[in-house]
Every structure is written in C-alpha cells, then in structure tokens.
Give the backbone structure.
Amino acid sequence: MIANSEASAQVFAELTKFDRKRIDVVHNGVDDAPFDALSGVSQAQLRERIGLPRDVFLVGAFSRLARWKGQHVLLEALLRERDLHAAFVGAPLFGEDAYDAELRAFVAQHDLAERVHFLGFRHDIAACMRAVDVVAHTSITPEPFGRVVVEGMLARRPVVASRDGGVTEIVEHGENGLLCTPGDAAELAATLAALRDDAALRARLSANGAETARRRFGKARYVAAVERVLAQVAAG
C-alpha cells in the first residue's frame, strides 16, 4: 500500500489492521510548470483577466465547496477583519449544494457581497492562486495530504493552513507557512491580518514555501519514490 502522508498511513492501518510495515508513504508530487509559466504576468493583469478587484487584500480558498473543507470559517473571519476580501474557487461536487446555498446566504445576510467572490469550478488554478495575496486552507476535518497547500507554495503565495492531518507534514509554522486551529475563525482572522500588515513576512513565507514545494513535493521526486517502492515489492 502507498499512502500519500504519514497521517493517511496511520489512519489506514488503524481502520484496516493492515501491516504498517507494508505501507509506504510517498507524498503527492505537484507539477510546477503551470506556475512557472505565469512568472512574467503581473498580479494586476491576472485579476483583470479573472474579474477580481485590483486594489484589495485578497484571500483565496481553493477546493470543492463542502462543509468539511471549512469555507464558512473564512467567511466568519471576514466579519472580524472588514478590509479583507475572499475568493472561493470550486463548486459543490457530491450533493453538497445545500452547503453552497448556506455560504451564499451567509454572504447576503452579512452584506459581504462586495468582498466575497465565488469563481466556481475553474481550470486556471495557477492563475487564480497568483492573483490572490494569501492562499487559505480551512479544512475542519484532517486532510489526507493537502495538495492545495503545495500548489499555493508553488504560486509563491504565503499559505495559511489548518493544523491537522497531512498538512502538518508540509507546513513548518513560521518558516514556510502559518498554521491555525481548525475551525477557529478568530485565529484565522488574526493570522490573515498579520500577513496583510507585514509585507516582509509574506515575502519570506512565499520564498521558503516555494523552495519547500520544489525540493520535497516535485513531480520527478514523486515518480522516483513510487518507482523505488514498486522495485522493492517486485524484488521481494
């Protein structure tokens, strides 16, 4: 068995009683090419292309719309920091339309329509990530891995992520990203405000995150690791 994180391996072993010695961990690999292709395109150009406001501090959330993904936590954080905007990239995929409607009702109830941008399902994820100022991962249930965190790093954007599951194998708090307690809107709001107010911190986290993503989660590294596992199994 190949698991995509130590967290996934542990849960799988506990649920199935599968021999832990026969579970290899290979973290997901993410292709950096789509992000590198945009290196010469300005954030202003990307926002204009996508239809996002130009002169605001914009937090992006990238995942399907589902309660366990915690988009509502980001909306609650926006109530505490009135100058933040949020862009949600994703759509409800597995009968989760009621949650989508709940998010939109919250936006209407709290007069957030000018600050919340629902972009729906999109293919240009790299462009959307480079168009925002911060990538936020807000899951309230442990993430098996957290691919979106690595993608945010490759986009050279500071990442704020939930402190749980496989994400903790990617983010070193204060070094290549920031971690928050899952479901804690107040902590998330304070963390986003700190990033908004500190350009040097954003730059440092972005640079360190990009280095981490390329060194530890590159496509070639992933392929080589899977090949090693297959070769060991075949030899055995």
Q: What stands out?
A: Residues 150 and 170 are 8 Å apart (CA to CA). The first strand starts at residue 2 and ends at 3. The beta strands are 2-3, 24-25, 57-62, 84-89, 116-120, 134-136, 159-162, 178-180.
